[in-house]
Every structure is written in C-alpha cells, then in structure tokens.
Design goal:
The protein is of the alpha+beta class. The chain has a domain of 167 residues: Methylamine Dehydrogenase, Chain H (7 Propeller). It has 13 helices and 37 strands. A hairpin with a 6-residue loop joins β36 and β37. The chain is globular. It comes from Sylvia borin.
Length: 751
C-alpha cells in the first residue's frame, strides 16, 4: 500500500495495481469520501531475465533441469527466478511492490508509478489521459541489455566472468538483475546553458533499484519523463550488503547544500547509508564513505525504512530521523551534521507489538510514525526531542473499535496526515478463521475538522490540490452542519485582508461551493437514469437554446465511507455516485428564504470567481508585456482582455491600469482580434468562458490564456471547473509555460 503526493493510493494485488484517487468533489452534496478507481493490469506474459544468448540459455536450462546432482536440479526447478513461467507450479502473476515518484514528474505534472511484478519485471507507468495507465519503459529489459553488452561486468577492470554453463555463474547473472526494491529521490533542479547563453532550469529525478546481490542501479530521468528517450544515465553501485531487503533515500540539507545517500537494510539485521557519487548532477553532494547505522547480525530482518527530515529545536538546525521496522521493534537513528562532523544517535523502541511489524508509514510533516502487525493493532509513535537525542511517545490505535475483529496487512498515511489507509481482512470469529478472505481498503481519520482548517489556513504549500485530504475533512463538516463555522470564516477574511494571496481566495471559493451544495435537497431519483417518457419538441419551437457544457463524470467514481476513531465500525461502502441537482424545499413556508440564501451564495461565488479571473488576467497580461515586441500579434486576445478588465467601473486596480497603459502603448492602436474558424467573423471578447461570433458560432475559451479553443479536442480540469487548449508547436515558450499551469479556481491539474 502506497499513498502518492497527488493523493492516489496504490494497492498491489495478484491481478493488478488498484489505484484509488481521492477527490474533494465540489459538485456533489454527498458526505462520503469520493474516490476514482483505475487499475494497472498485470502483464500477460512472464518476465525472463536476459543472462545470455537465447539458444545458449535454453541449453543451460535443460542441462540444469536434468542434472544428476540433486543440489543443482532441485535448486534450479524450485527457483522461480529461473522458472518464471512455473509450468506445473502456480504462476507468478501480480505485483509485489509499487512506489510513487514526487509530484511533477509526468507530462501532466503529476506522479509516476514504478511497479515491480512477482516475476521481477520493473516498469514505470503514467496516467496521461485520465482514464488509462500507459507503460512508459521496462527498466528490467533495459538493464538486462546493458549487462549483456558489458559481458555482465560492472566495470572494465573486473575479472572476466565464467561460462554460463556453470551453475554459480548462472545464479550470479540472475541475482545481479533481480530487483528487490525501488525508491524515488526528490527532484533535482539544475541550470542548463542554451546556445544563446540563456539559462533554463532542467529538472531530473533519480530512481534507485536494489538488486538481490546487493548492487544498486541509480537511474537518472529528465523531467517531464516521457519514456526511454528521457533516460539520462544509469550508474551501478556496490553496497556490500548480503541478502538486502529494503531501500530508502537519505536526503539532508545543510547550509543550503543538499546531500543524499541510500539507506540499505539487510534480512540479517544491518542497516547502513551508501554514498551516491553522481558527477552528472550539478549541486549534488554525498557522503565520503558508508555510514553504518546498525551493524549487529542479529537475524532481525529489516522490513521497512523511512527517512523523515525534521528541525532540531535545541541544536537549531535541520536533522534526519531514520526509522526501520526490525521484527516487532522499531529501530531509530537521528543524523545531525555539526562542526564536529556527522553525529549519529540510535536506539530501539520495544514493547510495541507482540507480532512482527508488517507495515510502517510516516507523516513527513510532523515526523509521526505508524506501525501495524497482523493482529489488527496500529501504533502511533510521536518523536519528542531532548537535549541529547529524542524519545518516542506511542499510543495504541485499536482498529477493532472501528472495524470489529480484523487482520491488517498494510498501512499508508495521506500526504498531510489527515487519513490512514489500512488493508484489512476478517479476523477470527468464535475462535475460527474465515473461510474466504475479502481484502478491503479502509480509511481512518487522524485529524479533527478544526485541526484540518487550521493547517489549511497556515499552509506553506498554498495549493488546494496538494491538500485534498485536509479539504475533504472541511468539506465533510460543512455538508454535515450546512454552514461555514464562524471561526473559519473570520480567520479566512483576516488572511485575505492581510496578504491578499489568491490561495485564500480559492479556499473561500471552495467553502462557498460546498456550502451551496449543502443547501440543496438530494434528488429523489438518480440523475443518470434515462427517462421512459417520449418528450419531443421541435428545435424551432423551443423557447431558448443555450450552450451546455458536458459535465459527464470521467472514470469510475467510487465512494468510500470515512471512519473515525470514535465512530462505530463500518466497511468500505462502494456505490456509484450521482451528481446532485438543484431542488428547492417542498415546504412552502421555507421556500423563499432558501431560494434567497442560494441566490446570495451564488452571487458570492460569482464575485470570488471574477476576482480570481481578474488576477489571472493581470498575470497573463504581464507575460504578454514581458515577452512581446512592439505591434506583435501574440495570438492571445490582448486588447479584448484589457477592455474586459477596464469595462467594470467598480474595479479600480492601479496596478492593472498601469500595466494596461504600457501594453496599449506597445500595441500602437493595433487590435489583433480573433476570428471564427468557420465563418472568419471577428470573435469579440465579451465573456471569459466562451466566444460567440456574429453568426452564432460558440467557442469555449481557454482559462489559462483566454484564447478561443477552436478545435474538437481540448483539456479539462480534474474537477471540471474549466477547459484549456492543447499547446501547439508554433506556441512560444512563455505561452507553453502558461498552459502548464493548474486550474485558477481549484488548483487541480488539467487533462
């Protein structure tokens, strides 16, 4: 179980990776959590590692299978790495591990998914067109080809390898390319000098792959990652750890210098940090030599490792907290760089579980660690700093009080720490195990509404999409109480008055939209069901024709009922959602006040949307002014945007007036209007959402550049707020940069 930074939960199963995307839906009045579900299917064919020419490999396999030495034949026949197809054995189909990249790695600025199958195929997938997952690259195949070309030697100075017909050599070639774990690093930003001596920022990300023999392959990808052509380099590091089991990145910032390394754990117990020497990445620093965090071979396998960056309140500097699950214990290590060098404090937290820890997750915002064992017990560990190192306060989260008697198989915490996702199956009933296992993903709330609202108001991220788990708690509270709490309304108004950031305006718009939905009555009948009445009307006789946007829900919309620690136990309720429509109260006494209240909220929503539109128009005009010459046609309706901003007499923004004055002076009375592609008539700029020519042709406007989208294909915001056009090859770089932006109303990405 893994939870990405863009609020998608991946669940590795025998048939596929189920991806559950959490949405804070502003168009639905239901109080349940809204989840969109997609899947990455398992490959249909088995993965065979490349250890030599096909003919020679087939001969060696036949030789080992028919060997008279039972230590060779039995080891060969029972090893599923050598025999992924299985023959008489059960097929090795499905996924055993998945890992999410940081936000901003794919073409849409979202997270990539690295998936490791049961038969050792490592692939990278992206969700590019909202509904379908696409495999971008097969790293197992690429790494096998690299080893084949290098004659299975890591460097030229290595001794020549043996013959493939020798069973130890056959094993060595498989173990050096059998992935055990893979983890993503943070995004590295470097400056690249172009031919005209201009500098541009180039982003890259690293993927570390731990192999069975202890080697680590570090892949460097240029962003956005599009496929094989985006691979910059691949370096192999020897860790020297036998029987490696788990991997994690150590990333530390000291005096504005970022240092990195790889934390590797062994099935025998040791844990150490390996230096990562990458000369190709500028501004990248690492350790001079490996650092051993735990060296005892105590036969306690390292199951999971998490590295949490924290601030030390006593030492007044940043530090790293490394936690590792070792059997039923939690091993912790505090790393701190001072003038004396690297300080290492380590210890174990005991008495947490009576069974081995099967899953561990960490909230990187406050350092809270969660562990679980199969008996349904989840522990919360809160680090508390002392003068020397730190200590942990831990408390038990009894899932049996919420879900009943269950067994737990995995946990993951949401990016902002609002939810805990738990994989459960039925526990023992009357001392008997269940006949069938039904695996469910349950969601437990970890924060109250007040804590979520305070975190949103004081957020340093200032992006609603990156805090969906927090906004979902706020959404649930408003829909339940049918009003915005007074303390939240007053605090938000103070924030808007003091700093005026558009983030707080978007937060206000979100609250008003949810309040509007809470005032509506639920429909008596689902809206998607077709009517059986034949109601036909002539188009010429219809009283009015208006343009309606297609708000059809994309993907499969699922609802999972939220669980809180104080509620009674409920399972995950999965039902199709239907969009609520406007229904006035049937009570004649309360109809008019309800209508007036809805109209008042609608007017506030339109006022906030207009404010956000004007602020984005100012940004677009600023880009136009900075990147155009005198009397240049930019393809953006600059004159129309200027006239639209100045058309409201009540809008008095000195910054906008000065900017418009400079732009009009640069345009030198030129208008450069847009023309309808069907009839060549002028498209006036009278509406921010659509353009209508004199012949009645209607084109929707791009909310990022305010150009008319005169094509049949365009992009749409995740929450269906707005539409945007696709970038074209003739667009300059600054327009392409504008088109990469998120929605101006809800911060959601655009597809």
């Amino acid at each position: 179980l893994a939870w990405s930074e863009d609020h998608r939960v991946s669940v590795s199963t025998a048939r596929s990776i189920a991806v559950l995307e959490q949405l804070s839906d502003v168009h639905s009045g239901g109080q349940d959590m809204v989840i969109h579900r997609t899947a990455v299917p398992a490959p249909a064919t088995a993965c065979t590692l490349k250890v030599g020419p096909k003919k020679e490999v087939a001969e060696c396999k036949e030789k080992f299978a028919s060997s008279v030495d039972p230590t060779v034949s039995q080891m060969f026949m029972l090893d599923r790495v050598f025999n992924p197809e299985g023959k008489s054995l059960t097929p090795m189909r499905g996924f055993k591990y998945s890992s999410w990249s940081p936000l901003g790695c794919d073409a849409n600025g979202r997270c990539l998914l690295a998936a490791l199958t049961m038969d050792n195929r490592l692939t990278i997938h992206a969700n590019l067109n909202r509904l379908q997952w696409v495999q971008l690259v097969d790293l197992t195949e690429l790494y096998g080809e690299r080893l084949f070309e290098a004659s299975y030697k890591l460097c030229k100075a290595d001794t020549p390898c043996g013959e493939l017909g020798d069973f130890p050599e056959f094993q060595r070639r498989h173990s050096m390319q059998t992935p055990v774990r893979m983890e993503w690093s943070g995004i590295c930003t470097t400056q690249q000098v172009k031919h005209n001596n201009e500098c541009r920022d180039v982003g890259s990300v690293l993927l570390a792959v731990l192999f069975e023999n202890g080697n680590i392959a570090v892949w460097q990808f240029q962003l956005p990652f599009l496929g094989k052509e985006s691979i910059t380099s691949c370096n192999t590091i020897e860790s020297g750890i036998s029987s490696p089991s788990v991997l994690s990145w150590w990333e530390y910032e000291h005096n504005n210098r970022k240092m990195s390394g790889l934390i590797v754990g062994s099935a025998y117990g040791p844990v150490k940090i390996i230096p990562v020497n990458l000369k190709a990445v500028k501004g990248y620093f690492t350790l001079r030599q490996p650092v051993v965090l735990w060296q005892e071979m105590d036969q306690l396998p390292v199951h999971s490792i998490k590295c949490i960056p924290l601030y030390h309140p006593y030492q007044k500097c940043s530090c790293s907290l490394v936690v590792a699950a070792r059997g039923p214990y939690v091993f912790w290590c505090l790393l701190l760089i001072s003038k004396a060098g690297l300080n290492v404090h380590n210890s174990h937290v005991t008495g947490l579980h009576s069974l081995p820890i099967v899953s561990m997750t960490a909230d990187k915002q406050n350092g809270t660690v969660y562990t679980c064992s199969t008996d349904g017990k989840v522990r919360q560990l809160i680090p508390i700093f002392t003068d020397v190192a730190l200590k942990f306060e831990h408390q038990l989260i009894k899932l049996s009080e919420v879900f009943g008697c269950v067994r737990t198989h995995g946990i993951a915490v949401s990016p902002c720490g609002a939810y805990l996702a738990v994989i459960t199956t039925e526990g023992m009933v009357n001392g008997l195990h269940p006949v069938n296992k039904n695996y469910q993903v349950q969601f437990v709330t970890l924060k109250t509404f007040e804590e979520a609202a305070a975190q949103l108001l004081e957020s340093s991220v200032q992006n609603l999409f990156r805090q969906v788990d927090l906004t979902d708690l706020v959404r649930w509270k408003i829909l339940k109480d049918k009003h915005i709490p007074q303390f939240l309304q007053e605090a938000l108004d103070k924030k808007i008055e003091s700093c005026g950031s558009t983030y707080f305006w978007r937060f206000k718009l979100f609250l008003l939209r949810i309040l509007y939905q809470s005032m509506q009555k639920a429909p008596s009948e689902v809206t998607w069901r077709p009517s059986h009445e034949d109601a036909k009307i002539l188009i010429s006789d219809s009283p009015g024709m208006g343009s309606t946007e297609d708000d059809q829900e994309e993907g499969t919309s699922k609802q999972a009922s939220k669980q809180s620690l104080g509620d009674s136990g409920k399972g995950v309720d999965i039902d199709d959602t239907a969009e609520d429509s406007l229904h006035q109260s049937s009570d004649t006494g309360g109809r008019e006040p309800m209508v007036e209240k809805l109209l008042e909220i609608q007017a506030q929503i339109e006022a906030v949307e207009m404010h956000l539109t004007r602020e984005h128009m100012k940004r677009v005009l600023g880009e136009v002014y900075l990147h155009t010459w005198i009397t240049e046609n930019t393809s953006i309706p600059t004159r129309g945007v200027c006239d639209f901003l100045m058309s409201d007499d009540g809008y008095d923004d000195r910054t906008a007036r000065v900017l418009i004055g400079h732009i009009l002076k640069k345009m030198n009375k030129q208008t450069f209007p847009e023309h309808c592609s069907l009839c060549k008539e002028i498209l006036p700029f009278t509406d921010r959402k659509q353009a209508v020519c004199s012949n009645g042709h209607i084109w929707l406007r791009c909310f990022l550049t305010y150009q008319s989208c005169q094509s049949l294909v365009y992009r749409r915001c995740l929450l269906h707020d707005s539409i945007a056009r696709h970038p074209t090859p003739e667009d300059p770089e600054w327009i392409k940069r504008l088109l990469q932006g998120p929605c101006t109303f809800c911060d959601s990405p655009v597809f």
